[in-house]
UniProtKB/TrEMBL annotation:
This is Acyl-coenzyme A thioesterase 13. It comes from Gossypium darwinii (Darwin's cotton). Coiled coil: none annotated. Keywords: Acetylation, Cytoplasm, Cytoskeleton, Hydrolase, Lipid metabolism, Membrane, Mitochondrion, Nucleus, Transmembrane, Transmembrane helix. GO terms for cellular component: cytosol; mitochondrion; nucleus; spindle.
Length: 215
């Protein structure tokens, strides 16, 4: 039911904010977030940029902003699809900056529904004058069978994308020894593989990641 998916998505967001699920970075980038409107596939949020996500110039760290966009896009799609969702394609365009303690409004809306694929647009605007700070666009894959299997018994493209993202993060962390978050992510798919088949990861996916470091 519609209300079930909406309430579940809001409960999920609340648990992230309270640090009950996810990891410390998620709670950090969402610190102080307030839901001001929520319906199936559409949400608005009120947010004061906290000190914990500052870059060296006192601006909202772009990596933290990208993480926020990713999380809120996922919450919005879950409210629409009522399914586990994973990022397949994700991009953020930055048009301005926001200072720490600046008040912003965030709007997240499901803009396309193509079977298991959902598209969400997340806009971040300055509260005072409505100036656009950033726009995130994201395709996410939903799957009711399992996290890793699609309806044809193949490796679910969303699960594969998540694996690529996580392995990229682990590899870069081993190099820089810092907290990192995805700013730009894409995966290209050249073939499929069945569940329970051993394979080499990069036979099926090519990943390009740009990371931003928290100072």
């Amino acid at each position: 039911m519609e209300n079930d998916s909406l309430q579940t998505s809001l409960a999920w967001l609340r648990d992230i904010l309270q640090g009950k699920i996810g990891h410390g970075l998620d709670a950090r980038v969402l610190q102080g977030l307030r839901v001001i409107h929520a319906e199936k596939g559409f949400m608005r949020f009120d947010f004061v940029v906290p000190k914990s996500v500052s870059d060296i110039d006192g601006n909202w760290n772009v990596g933290a902003l990208a993480s926020l966009v990713d999380l809120l896009g996922g919450v919005t799609i879950f409210s629409f699809a009522n399914r586990v969702v994973t990022s397949v394609d994700f991009s953020v365009s930055y048009y301005s900056t926001a200072k720490i303690q600046e008040h912003v409004l965030i709007e997240s809306k499901v803009s396309a529904n193509k079977g298991n694929l959902k598209h969400v647009v997340v806009e971040v605007k300055r509260k005072g004058n409505g100036e656009v700070i950033a726009v995130g666009k994201q395709w996410m894959a939903s799957n009711k069978l399992s996290v890793a299997q699609d309806v044809d018994g193949n490796w679910h493209v969303g699960a594969l994308a998540s694996l690529l993202d996580l392995i990229g993060i682990v590899t870069i962390y081993s190099f820089v020894n810092r907290v990192i978050s995805t700013v730009d992510f894409s995966a290209s798919y050249y073939s499929t593989t069945k569940i329970q088949v051993k394979t080499f990861l990069f036979t099926f996916g090519v990943i390009f990641l740009i990371f931003n470091f928290y100072s």
